[in-house]
Design brief:
Elements lengths: L2 H9 L1 E6 L13 H20 L3 E11 L8 E11 L3 E11 L6 E13 L17
Antiparallel strand pairs: 1-3, 2-5, 3-4, 4-5
Helix pairs in contact: 1-2
The chain binds coenzyme A.
């Protein structure tokens, strides 16, 4: 694996969550706003692990809600770097709905978030830097 592929592999982020009542909408399934918050958190962690500096979300691209997620469900969020630009990168975040009996997972929600590496003055900086020791 080359250095770039290794960085992408190391940036992969997984978070498992239980869907509590406060995470749901009036029909008892995962509230879209909650899902977006979780996805933003995973995108932030994924981008930070890749760039190893402060990052901010610059855009949330198309998010597809494919399968409703019921209260009490186990979900796993998986973040991956799918594009590396100069000062920005794109993360894909998937929310997998897990069958607690079999462990089988199916894709429930997917979105793409663009993140920008910034310095202390909130100015964009390269996502890959010599100083990061790469
Ligand atoms: C992120 C921010 C610093 C970028 O500033 P900017 O003046 O747009 O910077 P630039 O035009 O130089 O663009 C920087 C990078 O972001 C990308 N970018 C800018 N707007 C984008 C958008 N809407 N969607 C995707 N990428 C975008 C550019 O293509 C560029 O990428 P590259 O260097 O890899 O080619 C600025 O927009 C900002 O502060 N936004 C608010 C961030 C925020 O508060 N997020 C929520 C909390 S985390």
């Amino acid at each position: 694996m080359d250095n770039h592929s290794e960085r992408i592999a190391r940036a992969r982020t997984r978070i498992t969550k239980l869907v509590f009542p406060q995470d749901t909408n009036p029909i008892g399934t995962l509230y879209g706003g909650t899902a977006l918050k979780w996805m933003d958190e995973v995108a932030f962690l994924t981008a930070t692990r890749f760039a190893r500096c402060q990052v901010v979300t610059v855009s949330m691209d198309r998010v597809d809600f494919k399968v409703p997620i019921p209260q009490g469900a186990i979900v796993e969020l998986v973040g991956d770097v799918t594009r590396v630009g100069n000062t920005s990168l794109t993360t894909r975040v998937q929310i997998m709905l897990e069958d607690s009996g079999s462990g089988e997972q199916k894709l429930a929600i997917e979105g793409h978030l663009a993140m920008v590496a910034v310095d202390d003055a909130m100015e964009p900086i390269p996502v890959v830097r010599e100083a990061a020791g790469e």
